[in-house]
Amino acid sequence: MVFPIVFLNFANGKVKGNIMKNVRTLLGSCLVILFLAVGIVPVLAQSGVIQYRVQEHETLYGISRQHGTTIEKIISVNPGLQPENLKAGQTIKIPTEARNSTQVAKEGGQHEVMEGETIWGISHKYGLTISELISANPEMNNSDYVLRAGSTLNIPSRNKSSARPSASSKPEQKAVASSQGKSKEIKIAIVMPMSGDKPEVGRCAEFYRGLLMAAETMKQRGKTITIYPYEESSDGDVLSILGQIEKNGVDIIYGPLYPSHFATMGVFTNRTGIKAIVPFSSKVESVNSCRNMYIVNTPAKVQNTNACTLFKKHFPGSHVVFLRTSQTQDDFVAAMKSNLRQDQYSELPMGFSNNDILSIASGKRELVLIPTDKSEGTLKETLTRLERLRSEMPKIKTVLFGYPEWEKFQETYVHRLCAADAYVFASFYYNPYDASTTSKMEAYKKRYGAPMLNFYPRYGLLGYDVGLQTMSNYFNYGKSFTTQVSSEAYLQSLLKFQSANKDGGYVNGNVWFMHFRTDNTIERISSR
């Protein structure tokens, strides 16, 4: 199912919204067009309203747009109704504005119903709302009404200034690429599961909402973006979706989620030149042979290699002490050892003594302690031992260095991490104490009526950052967009794409060090 949203460039227009369940879209002076493939079941009307039976996969927002009304007006005539409790088969009231059907017929003409046509399709063809078509044809209000081929419908005329473009209409501002590759309009598609009860649905829906917030930011700068969300099924075939994407002239695809679709997507992007941004998985084999695939989640090998490079730049002359644990050694440790000379590191058991440290520290400027696994238990034990060491041997300069997974525990250990002068390497970082981040999260909560899910990364911020940076780069570079680093301000994720290999696509090579400073501030260190 496809729900294109067209952001048209009207002065001072504002668009806020989503089309999935539990999401509202608020309209300013900007026009948003949605096309929903749904069945219409009109039943007996009451004064000032019609009754409407909800179809499978419909949303309250979608229904409001079909009937030319708002979510708020529908809720006002349906006490207790909310977007989250809308169900297929439910009958709800839709407020309508009365029209003189005789006058409408004279103004607009008639339409002969063809085989296979629907009420929605006919109303959309003439730029009408369903309510307007029903008002012009009162017989549709009868509970036993059936739209039959060969019957004739009254078609009201529409004032040109208020008419909605049809499905074939083009956005007001046409895509133009300058000689430098810049574009003034782009079309994007989202291929993810966004309905149902599976755990991944919530994360994908949140990513999509963040992407919409990024699109709104671009729209406020005068850009035109057309968005086509497609429902991805874990056991379905994406070929039909890709066919629609190609037909619609999409420039960028965000997705897919499921690994079973990566290869098909890769072949498709090679053939069409459409760019596919895969935001979640770091294990996408197709990127090695598909030059238009972009992997946002940094692969572990790339992350470890780039972290080692940044480590050598930031800690020149420091001596590394690996603290062995009973857990499986992390791959990062092996990568570090291969980048250090034998005299640049030592190894001790986690239960080290002060004398063990003293013997290593002699003549060393600084000791960087790195436990060999990333578990929370190891973090807690390391902090406890380091606190005791610093208390008993304060003249020995030590810092703690750890893993991206520790970010999940930061709110529990943040003060202890700061006291330990700790560093954590990561490809993304959610800072709950950053003003810009908290402001965006509050805006998300206000718009969608719920906070972002408590996951790392925050998927709403991920959608916002990825959307803003990739859309901005496409506007600036067009199809030439490859490894350019966006100048956009990011909140959680910076994209620094690097070539996977000479024949393949691109992977995000960004790595930061998050420094928990002893003055209780957090510093983000980048090689940028």
TrEMBL record:
Domain LysM: 50-94, 109-155
Low complexity composition bias: residue spans: 156-170
UniProt xrefs under Pfam families: LysM
InterPro entries listed in its UniProt record: LysM, LysM_dom_sf, Peripla_BP_I
GO molecular function, one term: lytic endotransglycosylase activity
Region (Disordered): 154-181
PANTHER family the record matches: LYSM DOMAIN-CONTAINING GPI-ANCHORED PROTEIN 2 (PTHR33734), MEMBRANE-BOUND LYTIC MUREIN TRANSGLYCOSYLASE D (PTHR33734:SF22)
The name this protein goes by in its record: LysM peptidoglycan-binding domain-containing protein
Record organism: Pseudoprevotella muciniphila
